[in-house]
Amino acid sequence: MYNNIMLDRDRPRKVVFYGRVSTDHEAQLSALENQIQWYEEWTHSPSQESSAT
To answer: What sign does the dihedral 44-45-50-53 (CA atoms) show?
Structure first.
């Protein structure tokens, strides 16, 4: 049974996002916003919803 769970490529996956900026400068804060936006769009794209990665 354990092997069947591990091989189920169609099951939903959890995603963890780690965003990082090195300073409090305005440019760095917008870079963090851009990182968040990119990952939100990526995780909600149809190609990722059915992906086995």
So the answer is: negative
The answer to whether the predicted template modeling score (pTM) of the entire model surpasses 0.70 is: no
What's the per-residue H, E or C state across 1-53? Answer: CHHHHHHCCCCCCCCCCCCCCCCCCHHHHHHHHHHHHHHHHHHHCHHHHCCCC
Q: pLDDT digits over 23-45, tens only?
A: 777 778 788 888 889 988 888 87
Cα distances (Å, whole numbers) of residue 10 to 18, 20, 39, 45, 50: 24, 31, 21, 15, 7
Instruction: Report which residue type is found at 15.
Output: V
The Cα–Cα gap between 48 and 33 comes to 21
